[in-house]
Design a protein that fits this description.
16 helices; alpha/beta; Pyrimidine Nucleoside Phosphorylase, Chain A, domain 2; single chain; four-stranded antiparallel sheet; 434 residues; Transferase, Pyrimidine Nucleoside Phosphorylase, Chain A, domain 3; Aldehyde Oxidoreductase, domain 3; binds uracil; 3 domains
Amino acid sequence: MNMLDLIIKKKNGESLSKEEIGYMIQGYTAGNIPDYQMSAMLMAICFCGMDDEETTFLTMAMTDSGDRLDLSRINGIKVDKHSTGGVGDKVTLIAAPVVAALGVPVAKMSGRGLGFTGGTIDKLESIPGFRTDISEEEFIRFVNTDGISIMSQTAELAPADRLLYALRDVTGTVDSIPLIASSIMSKKIASGSDAIVLDVTVGSGAFMKTEKEARELASCMVRIGKLAGLETRALITDMDEPLGRFIGNSLEVMEAIEVLKGKGPEDTREVSLEIASQMLLAGGRAKDSDEAKALIDGCISDGRALDALCRLIKNQGGNTSVTDDTTLFKKAGIIKDLTAEDDGFVNAIHCEMVGNCVKLLGGGRQVKGEEIDPSVGLELLKKKGDPLEKGDVLARIFACDEEKLEAAEKLLSRAYVIGREKVQKGPLILGIIS
Ligand code: URA
């Protein structure tokens, strides 16, 4: 068997066998298949797809590329959540502490930014001192003592995904159903939780641009989860405009803190609390959504949810004072407003362009392993449906470099679509697949 033949086979639209997929994943993980050949294979998969059987083989080969975490030392039903990616998606930073505060253990492995979307690990690392590269021992200890821990993928867990994820990020090979499904499900199976809630985003700020594709991805992941014995459910959520008001690593942490204090933007609250509610149901902590919602309201209003976030931050070396004093986050040196050139209404905000703006500012990676700047990002003061008068501030740009600011400003002004008529926002939660 050799990789060149496999690339050509996939390029010609043929299916790969279990043995061929196993050969490719083992070879790449061991460093025997170079990045350029794997990049060509990823691109062929993006164009030609994979059938259900191939996607399952790929997922299992990626899971088996490393160890599986044994969470049996943690009592209770361990519930995980994972998003297929979005812009301004700070849901984990809210849902995880809420669920932990209500006694459902959260042992979560998260990722870095991918393509134009952000990643929870990059966001958490914007908290001064916060360590995401903790050991498995620490991870289990923190969940046992404080009900919550979030770590980055270790070298041992689904290493094939860790390598492919970084390669896909910089080769334009993210938006493929088999690649997303195998990436997410391989690490979820390896990381040992009992149940998982998937947030499958759809729209201009998601990898799935249509609801049909999002449902297909959700069904594929639910099917793989069930095959692996995981209680799996997926929510389809709207990502046609960025979630919430802030986009960028530290800015999103600040917004999440606001929501945990009972404030923050309505859309961020709605999606985060729906995901938290599904996690409580999956963990057997609530019998129906009404009970889940009442529990969630209670733990936010009496401060238990924020306390859970503080315990997560403290255990992992971060400065918990950030929850009261946002000046402790690294600050962007340049702040510039983008204003409306005319009266009208915001008809749409092209969400992928907004994600790419943050990337251009330095908040995401252009090449593998690049350092990012946690302080840069955007505040969206006007969102879809909002009325505008000429000169109103549409968005605020937080930058550290004049050249990057200029590029981001140009792109952001194209992302806002302004019209004469008011448009209605659609629902945020489009369905649940279980
Ligand atoms: N999240 C992941 O972990 N992998 C993907 O491919 C997309 C989102």
